[in-house]
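Hi C.,

You asked whether I'd gotten around to modeling the 131-residue construct. I have! Everything is below, sequence then structure, no commentary in between.
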Amino acid sequence: MMLTKDLIGPDLDWHVAQIEKMPVKIVDSKCIYVGRVDTWANPGSLKGILTGQPFNPSTRHGIGGLIMDREYIGTAKWIGQDEWTACYENGPRAWGPTRLVAAMRCFVMHHRGWQVSAVDPDGAKVEMQIY
């Protein structure tokens, strides 16, 4: 088990993908989308991501920003602080070195809890503990 607050990089992206029901695998330390391409994706949909392309919502605003907008995740960086904070209204709060990392940690925390299972690099579904 891992603490959600410690997730970063491909591990964080993998957990976001599991919540989004996006088929991914970890390849060469990158979270790669392996599902089919939906060429008729609606604006704001994550389904237009190409097979074989990185699924990296914690570093790419084009993916993470859509999730933030849809989920109404607010972010802020306070004067004198090194980390960003992200939260749902009356919900969990998470911190991270960037706005997207904080927001994706908050997203995972909201849907899966404070602790999650270790990443399965082959993309198989694993049990997640919800608190």
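If it helps when you're writing up: Confidence is low (pLDDT under 50) at residues 125-131.

Thanks,
B.
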